[in-house]
Amino acid sequence: MVPRLFCWMIASTMLVATPPVMAEDGYDLWLRDARIEGAAGQQIAAHARTIVSLNSPSLAIARQELQRGIGGTTGALPALSDMIQQGSLLLQSATSTRAMAVSTEGLGPDGYAIRSMNVEGKPVTVIAGATDIGVLHGAYAWLRLAETGAALDRLDVRSTPRIGLRLLNHWDNLDGTVERGYAGQSIWDWWRLPDYKGPRYTDYARANASLGINGTVLNNVNAKADSLTAAYIAKAAALADLFRPYGIKVYLSVKWTAPMELDGLKSADPLDPAVAAWWKTKADEIYKAIPDFGGFLVKANSEGQPGPQDYKRTHADGANMLAAAVKPHGGIVMWRAFVYAHDNPDDRAKQAYSDFKPLDGQFADNVIVQVKNGAIDFQPREPFHPLFGAMPKTPLMMEYQITKEYLGQSTHLTYLGPLFEEVLKSDTLARGKGSTVAKVIDGSLEGHRLTGIAGVANIGVDRDWSGSIFNQADWYAFGRMAWDPDLTAEAVAREWAAQTFSPDPKVVAPIVAMMMGSREAAVDYMTPLGLAHIMGTGHHYGPAPWVSELARPEWNPVYYHKADRQGIGFDRTKTGSNATGQYAPALAKLLDNPKTTPERDLLWFHHLPWDYRLASGETLWDGLIHHYDRGVEAVAAMQRDWAALKPQVDAERFAQVEAFLAIQHREALWWRDACIAYFQSVSGRPLPAGSAAPAHPLDWYKAQSFPYAPGHPK
Ligand code: GCV
User: Fold this and answer.
1) CA dist., res. 483 & res. 488, Å (int)
2) What is the pTM of this model?
3) pLDDT one-digit tens code per residue, 638-660
């Protein structure tokens, strides 16, 4: 049960924005704890006069966080006390020496209860958990409630995460670069670990714990074997020690051929006993250094990575061999389903399903298959991956990309909350209506206990962590929706904006409106109506729908849009690649017909003539151009909305967002013009009345090059 206690009536009457007094650089994320004046600040102070708690490592953090938050928002530091007084915050877990004031039954290891009640005759707020980590999560939740304007005198919240594994995946390399990272170098200073443990690690743990994120995969899925050497295990162990009191476990990505590369084994065949023994010994070594090590993440037989198929074994053979190695220690294996093969002529969107669906029921019980939200690759919009709902006997976990490889990288304001929500709410129809993707990954649809969700991190050493202030919202939204996949993107945006900028509704409302429209704007100016994968080669920055000369067909944008004189789109119906046949029959039937396919996915599933009529009555050609126009206009509108917020936002963050919106506007126009110039060269059609011609001829767009674009694996 997850009650909603955000009391916005109070927000509108009590919260008064503190005028921005000094510039901020974004380092404090949503944990700024900025001063809240007036009645709202007073109610925080009144409900947090003292903190009563024991002093375990995690409870000490909870106390510090509460002191920091309350001190920051009210200017008055609550005292630590053993005595309950009116207005105390009482922190309780199973280790409490007082009788538990509220039941912790059903809260699990991570959940919490927050309740306004009388204890020893005094009105207090109890923050309780079955474990100290639960209490820590509760402390962060109380601060969130306080800072977003909840009525603190009548709290009655019980919250448990719906999904067990809530993990960040870092695509961080051992040399400090980050694959698809747009926020600077890696925050892991591998070279100086384990001796030097800078303050960023603790701040990273705070930020994650405040959202309930409970694990982190430290290294890139395109892994180096070296991360499994004794030296690197010691470095990972140092991080694990720091993260443990925050309830965060570490995991490692592994390279399939590590036994050969590190110890000269002749093969990496998962059925070779010597290989299995190597992994068992390696797992024992890791667990000796990191007793609560989470387990392994594996990218195998994908994009050139080695894997069990090199030995004519299946993904299940590979996953199960690793699973046996970590099982005695309680570890798990997350096996990625992001696979497509250079010698497979089938539609790339079908290949993961074709490989994995037949393996349903063959995975060990500590294996979970990690599936990207869509069947291609984190595009601005993709229909949900057909594996969701198709492997009832196998736990599946979601993989989202928080870093925005395809959504404007660091500079575009494209809030991902709506993308997360859209996918989670998609109905697979696998077990009739209401079989949402959220129910697949929270385990409730098929009764799985091992459940998970991962987000490819957007974190780097930039002062603002995520490459832009607004990109922080994507990290925030991932964590909040991982805890509760039923949260709406809008509610999460409201929380984030209130904590990151100001709880003043005059600030929150326009910021949330900008955020909520921003992803659709990007879809419009990049890949409207179900188009996908038409970006520049390699770096994936900017438009390049004309690219057709790359070695593998599925590397080329022309493979995805298939535009010609007659029409545009990829026919994935039963008369085309039959990717629709990978969905539940009732859904496949809808998707086979363009009229019953959601228009947002139209060209993903259908190749249609330019004169095809959209729901609006306009032709597909005119509608496509209008989407591009709308996308650019939406960015211009965000620029205007942001400009109006200038008096309410501190100078440094205001200036960053203003500058990035200007970049976004220029690039939205570039996307629009380049795509229109190209599609017009193919369709030969005039632009609809009122739509401007591209600023340059097509060849100008084709001639652009970006040799040092960030995030691109070299
Ligand atoms: C880590 C896409 C990205 C790659 C990434 C890959 C994956 O292809 O462009 O950088 O590699 O997905 O998810 O494994």
Assistant:
1) 12
2) 0.96
3) 999 999 999 999 999 999 999 99
